[in-house]
Amino acid sequence: MIKVEQLYKYFKQVKALDGISFEVKKGELFGLLGPNGAGKTTTVRIISTLIPPTKGQVEINGYFLPKDAAIIRNFIGYVPQALSSDGTLTGYENLLIFAKLVGLNRSEREKQINELVELMGIGDFVDRLVREYSGGMVRKLEIAQALLHNPKVLLLDEPTVGLDPASRRSVWDVLKTLQEKYDSTILLTTHYMEEAEALCDRIAIMDHGKIVIIGTPKEIMEQAGVETLEDAFIVLTGHEAEEGGNFNELKRVRKTARRLQ
Amino acid sequence: MEARRLRHDPTELFTRAVQPVLWLLVFGETFTKIKAIPTGGVSYIAFMTPGILSQSVLFISIFYGLALIWDRDQGIIQKFLALPVPRSAFVVGRTMGAAVRGISQAVIIMLLAVILRVEIRWSILSILGTIGVVILEAAFFSCFSMILASLMKTRERFMGIGQVLTMPLFFASSAIYPISIMPKWLQVIAVINPLSYVVEILRCILVTGVYMNMLLHVGLLIGMILIAVVIATLLYPRLAS
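Above: the input entities. Below: the structure tokens describing the complete assembly.
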């Protein structure tokens, strides 16, 4: 479904992506795992057509980036890391705007919104302002927004950053349901080892703009000869996951986390 | 969307109304007394009402790009840009949002003009005409603002540029005094200043009733809007990075 080949992205002198390649199969839940600053967000932004790659190729459902960006947008849904729904509107209004934007007619809109609201389990709250939502509910609302046009591929950037454990689990459940019931292909980034382990079919561990290893969580742990992904990360990269990142990134994560509380 | 936002938080309407009220009351009343400015036979406050109307719409629209930068910081823009929707739809949608705000301003100022008994030519046509012109004005300046936002990207830079531009736009226009009393070099700026066209059209409709060059002015304004929309559409995706 998604095929990334020799992808490079430079921001001025900084090599954000240093030639990564991986493939996500149809119906798979694939995770990009790595510390802040490893290049996960950049990867997702390129795949979601937001920024052009410096070099390399991305194939999605038979189309190529950046050439076919306008077509590719029809079958991707993107949930950015930052909280992006409008707190001054109700959940329903947030969904309605997106439904109108992607050109659903009135009856399709109602049907689609109702279905997604039920799927996300936010039915009791759709008519309340989003600023009164809990973090997990905001995230689920955002996932619903990204699904209104029935994309084949869902791209999520750090979907559970800053969430409490219960909310995190509820977001996981939603993603699992999407995968099982709708056969959605899901690509997400995370820096939580336990999230990657609990949720993803396959993982690519990223570090300094490169992919260190790709495989199922079990394969990766076996290859590294350790019991946990955390240890596997240290063995494979030679340092701990908490390093890396820069001031701006940290600022952004903290801001998101604060808004979620 | 903008209308819904206003419905949830209507206080903004009132805070926005304060500035034009002050202009009309303090500046207008005083200058009407001293009669320092040649207005061509109408009272100064009637002369400046269209100016203040266009000024308040300008102030709202020119900072409209700030909402774009705000949305960019929150990640909303990025989410919009990943949708299968043509970019021009976002630009046009935003200009309509600015127009809604502009119209709300126009209504407030017209009410104020009624309260202050400013001699304005009231008719269905003049009110519809005013609303039409306000929509055009809001569309142009909000596009202009979006272009600036796409280039500046951060709030600090945008505010800096915005402040620098608003003052000359306002004072080098026929908003509060006729172009003919300005020094020559300022007249040149005033003539190419889109705000002058807006003020002239509004003044025709609301005060003098002399429809000189009106079609030309409206045509020029629409032309500039089209160009601004195209540029804003091309620059919009820059906000993603």
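Note for the figure: The longest strand of chain A covers residues 14-24.
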